[in-house]
Amino acid sequence: MAGVERNQPASNRVWRPEDLSPEWLTVHLADAGLLGGSQVAHFNVEPVGTGQMGDSFRIHLETDPPGDTAPPSIVGKFTAADEQSRATGVSMRTAEVEVRFYQQVAPTLAARIPACHFADVDPTTARFVLLLEDLAPCRVGDQMAGCTVDEAALALEELAKVHAPRWADPALERLEWLNRRDALVLDTLSAVFPALYAGFVDRYGERISDRVRRVGDGFFPRIGDYLHHRAGPATVQHADFRVDNLLFDPPGSPVAIVDWQTVTWGPGSADVAYFLGASLAVDVRRANERALVRHYLEAATAWGVVGYGFDDLWLDYRRHAYSGLVMAVGAAMSVARTDRGDEMFLTMAERHAAHVEDVDAGSVLGT
Fold this sequence. Notes:
The structure is a single chain. This protein has 13 helices and ten strands. The protein is an alpha+beta fold. Helices cover about 45% and strands about 15% of the residues. The chain folds into two domains: about 120 residues, Phosphorylase Kinase, domain 1; about 230 residues, Alpha-Beta Complex (Aminoglycoside 3'-phosphotransferase, Chain: A, domain 2). The longest helix has 22 residues. The protein is globular. The strands form three sheets. A five-stranded antiparallel β-sheet has the order 1-2-3-5-4, sandwiched between helices. A three-stranded antiparallel β-sheet has the order 6-8-9, covered by helices on one side. A two-stranded antiparallel ribbon has the order 7-10.
């Protein structure tokens, strides 16, 4: 983790890949202990990933002299080029949150998370940069295709290694950037989301199913009940734990987790509900849901969680079936619009609406 907290003079700060230089990369990769006395002589970049809150690139490195310790490539995550995404980054603090996560929380977790070689952020403008371990040739998940039951089980095992090490840890509540749930914020979100949902319906029109409209029409006027009652023991909650944010190795290998810009202090059960609602085809989820929820609990228990039984988890899981619908609507109306984004958000909305009805989440919404 060397180099992650390094402060930079304003003139030396880099926010976009076009601003990189061999000299800048040499300073930070040497500080992280990656170069073994070599220098970065040349590099080139290529886009990777489909994230909409930041732009990611693979940075291919050539060092002089060539060294065995230098990685052939790293991943750089930078300020989004899109103006709307940057504005959302300021209002939602996504850049600050992700950088602080890598600096302060990631080293305390047991999950497979890319090593962070350098991180810098300007919270006032949401400009940021992360230099991360390149986990190629891992396969990036595909949200719209979903995942298999075996892949879901592996993902939940890794999720347990996010939640368990800091389960009910009071120190997390004191991290202001992580605990963003003050009453004013919740009241503001409660007021804004009905308008976002109205915009979502207006934008997608006939592409929205009757089920999504039925669930959304019943939920968003009551969203305050959901936001103010986040049930379940609090821990490090990824808050966007879905297939697009997972990297898969060969079958049976641990899953790697990326994209931490939404991480928060919240209930682990919300991650479980969001993941299963978003990342499995509806019929696959229905056939395997209880077994997968139990599998997560067994993994969390093995990593040290105590006093939280299946009945407790299942009740919290049902309450949080709404989490994916909130994300689908909120994200769709807050980031740059793309064809893939439209398909993804509509797919998510459909899967999560079915999830809400399948587990009868409405009956436990405010309890």
